[in-house]
Amino acid sequence: MREPLLAVHDLSIGTADREAQPLVSGVGFDLHRGETLALVGESGSGKSLTALSLLRLLPDPPVSLQGGSIRFEGRELTELGAQEIRDIRGGAISMIFQEPLSALNPVMTIGNQLLETVRAHARLSRKQAAERVLELLDLVRMPDAARRLHDYPHRLSGGMRQRVLIAMAMAGNPRLLIADEPTTALDVTVQADILDTLQRLQSKFGLAILLITHDFGLVADYADKVTVLYAGRQIESGPVSEVLQRPAHPYTRGLLGARPDVLPVKRPDGTRPRLAEIPGTIPAIRDLPPGCPFSSRCVEAIECCTRRAPPLAAVGVGHLSACFLTQAAE
Amino acid sequence: MSPVAPLLSVEDLVVDHRSGAHTVKAVAGVSFTVGRGETVALVGESGCGKSTLARTIVGLHRPTSGRIRFGGQDLTSGAGGFLAGRRDPVRRRLQMVFQDPLLSLNPRATVGRIIEEPLIVQKQGDSATRRQRVDELLGAVGLSPDMKTRLPHEFSGGQRQRIGIARALALRPDLVVCDEPVSALDLSLQAQILNLLSDLQERMALSYLFISHDLSVVRHIADRILVMYLGRIVESGPIDILGSGARHPYTQTLNAAVPGARAGRRAAPLENAATSDVPSPIDRPSGCFFHTRCPHRRTECVERTPVLRQIAPGHEVACHLVEAGLELAPPAARRTA
Q1: Would residue B234 count as lying in a domain?
Q2: B-chain residues within 8 Å CB-CB of A158?
């Protein structure tokens, strides 16, 4: 088996308070060239922290990486110096964010922001840089690109802003793109368009994509593999078809059952089926129950679930689940 | 159509927003009805005017022209102007639930006070009966009555939305306008709130005007769908228009763009579908507003505005091509692998 582009192992992220439970604990995954891995979870599940930690972008202090390994193209990122990691950011690994407006400088034209980015990555003449900017905008299918260069970010629609950010992210010829909820702020037709653009870039350049999302619909359409997080703990992972069709962990099953589109619209007698609910709410990390983090909301919890945390174990080919019950059933 | 007068009827409603030299026609001539016990959903993308329409119905915006009738009463005329008084008795029967529960709850008022406030404003009962009603309402939305002394920030997002719902129900309304009530919530909480809204509807014989951009949520909760695009309704009909029954190219595009609805990984992109952004409502296209993004566009679409025409009982479409009897293939079917 060839070595993955990115191999994250036993990642742990916490606050300065060493007594407190870590915010993210035991998260690990592999990502190969040309592959998309979706990191899925609800708010507070630690999916954004995990992504930020890869590029050492955690708000440190108070939040810092406390353990684990991040291997990228054979290098251990956690051991790199500040300058080395800075070279990787926006270079071999780049990132796009949920709210494109807050990632752009409001008092600088799109063209100048792109020029700045392009020239930060390569020594180019003014003319070469300008050509590269248009090439990048073309790559992300920016409508009317030449005219847009003189616009300030507020003049662009949300979809166009996200295209500008993708163009910037592509400026350093990345091998890995981290996309943190890239379409959550966008309308559904624009969302499809942006994700299709990412998919096109992926097949053209063999880009690996780490897609952070809360939307299982996007996972189904765009990802190869999925890792489900709950309260900073990895509770299930595997190939998308496997996890979506045979979800093993009660939390994943609950989430998939809570989607309104999995139900028939109306029963023959005219009444509506009820959505499956997961009782309660996600506990704060400091209120996590002992044992399995999901045990306080799990309708299937048995006695041992509150005594110790179930380890991740195989329940299918490449399919892992951290639940005593699914493991017993296998 | 039922012979009984609808609970809410909106006729040719126009709402303009003025911003400097620009006038934005947020709602550009919209007509529809909501019957008793019915859930009508308004779907569309940002800037289509769905929130303005909702807010105008509950009296938060003044309509530029057109009529809104509610329970047989004309809300758009009358001596006091449009729902001028905050004690207007109509308000008792017409309430709203907002998208962001944190922004719509007073951060310095206790939850008990927040839910009691509509009762105080409308001079309902004495202090003891009002308190009893607050306890009842908290119970009805699945919260414990002893939470009433807490402040909104002490609650999670899902619980805050329950508080917003309890407040909307305090005056025993007939119609509740829900503006994106679950879009700020995580999936597991979204299911809880949608189930709660269904239960309350059954128990209290409520009607909902439900505004959302999430088609799967709408399909679950609604009886009837109105699809809005840049201030106009382009298609209205039963829930199956959010699926195989869609006839307007915009509705078809929306359906095809829903994640999870596509053929799966490596499905070819939505070629020929609307691949550009929604035009600005300040600078709207001529003729059919959708023509700039429509894969089926013809010259007449640029020149003339199509009107809503019934193509089947309870199903109306505003499209020249549909009117001419053409079957328009939805984008999903045009995809090549």
Answers
A1: no
A2: 46, 277
Q: Which residues, numbered 25 to 54 in chain B, qualify as contacts with chain A under a Cβ-Cβ cut-off of 8 Å? A: 45-46
Q: Which of A35, A36, A161, A189 to mutate: most B Cβ within 10 Å? A: A189
Is B232 inside any structural domain? no
Residue linked to tokens 């005594």: A307
Residue A76 CB neighbour total at 10 angstroms: 11
Output A275 or B86, whichever has higher pLDDT: A275
Assigned token pair, A119: 């020239």
Joined together, the tokens standing for residue A292 give: 């399995």
- B280: pLDDT strictly greater than 60: yes
- Residue B281's closest chain A neighbor by CA? A157
Whether B136 and B63 share a structural domain? yes
Domain count, chain B: 2
* Cα atoms in the Cβ-side hemisphere of radius 13 Å centred on B165: 31
pLDDT tens-digit series, residues A122-152: 899 999 999 999 999 999 988 888 888 999 9
Cα dihedral B164, B178, A184, A298, rounded to 10, equals: 60
CA dist A23 → A26, A46, B148 (Å)? 10, 7, 31
Whether residues B309 and B278 fall in one domain: yes
Q: Which residues contact B117 (CB under 8 A, 6 or more apart)?
A: B109, B167
**Nearest by CB: B259 against A221, A254, A272:** A221
Listed residue (B262, B301, B157) closest to A223, CA to CA: B262
Tell me the average pLDDT across A217-228.
94
Which two three-digit tokens encode residue B207? 């009607």
Pairing of strands A233-239, A313-316: unpaired
Q: Which domain holds residue B43?
A: 8-222
Domain containing residue B156: CATH number: 3.40.50.300
- B152 in a structural domain: yes
Which alpha helices (H) appear in B28-110, and where do they start and end?
50-57, 89-93
Model confidence at B59, in pLDDT bands (50, 70, 90)? Answer: confident
Q: What is the pLDDT of residue B328?
A: 82
Cα pseudo-dihedral A23, A29, A34, A35, rounded to 10: -90
Q: What is the pLDDT of residues B305-335, one digit of tens each?
A: 999 999 999 999 999 999 888 888 877 533 3
pTM for the full model?
0.86
**Which residues fall within 8 angstroms of residue A123, CB to CB, at 6 or more apart?**
none
Residue B231 located in a structural domain: no
What would the pLDDT profile of B112-150 be if each residue is shown by its tens digit?
999 999 999 888 889 999 999 999 999 999 999 999 999
Q: Are residues B154 and B122 in the same domain?
A: yes
